[in-house]
Amino acid sequence: MAIRKFKSGATRDTDEGKIDYAGFLHPKVIEAFGKYMHKHRMQTDGSMRASDNWKKGMPRDELFKSGMRHFMDWWLEHEGFASREGMMDALMGLMFNVQGYALEVIRDGESN
Questions:
Q1: Is 10 left (phi over 0), alpha (psi -120 to 50) or beta?
Q2: Among the ranges given (9-13, 37-41, 79-83, 107-111), the one the predictor scored with the smallest mean pLDDT
Q3: Which of 37, 70, 84, 111 could link 94 by a cystine bridge, Cβ 3.0 to 4.6 Å?
Q4: Is residue 106 a contact partner of residue 72, using CB atoms and an 8 Å limit?
Q5: Alpha helices of the chain — where are they, by DSSP H?
């Protein structure tokens, strides 16, 4: 493997073949997702759920049904119609449900 040498004299191997997470994600999308998630931390009983509450796991059916509602809102907005929540909440809600569903798939050992 090739070694890079910097002006400072420090050395490091190349990043060839390594996953470029910063390239695959955008900070403005992650920021919008964080704001969406924070906005939805307040529960109907007035208590605040932990930010990582979703990581405890949720049934796939619940995630799918919720994801479909957000998808419908996205589709309506895309077609020029009003939705329950608006475009950004639809997208971020869908992103949440996809992420939750993906975590369940990973936990169940179905991932590649």
A1: beta
A2: 107-111
A3: 70
A4: no
A5: 21-24, 27-39, 60-78, 87-107
Are the CB atoms for 104 and 60 separated by under 8 Å? yes
Q: Assess if residue 36 is contained within a domain.
A: yes
Place of tokens 């009983």: 45
Domain that includes residue 53, residue range: 26-107
Q: How far apart are CA 82 and CA 15, in angstroms?
A: 45
Q: Is residue 43 part of a domain?
A: yes
Looking at residues 44-52, what average pLDDT do you find?
Answer: 96
Arithmetic mean of pLDDT over the chain: 95
Is the pTM above the cut of 0.90? no
User: Would you say residue 63 lies in a domain?
Assistant: yes
Q: How many domains does the chain have?
A: 1
- What is the C-alpha radius of gyration for the chain, rounded to an integer number of angstroms? 19
* E strand or H helix that includes residue 71: helix 60-78
pLDDT at position 1 over 80 = no
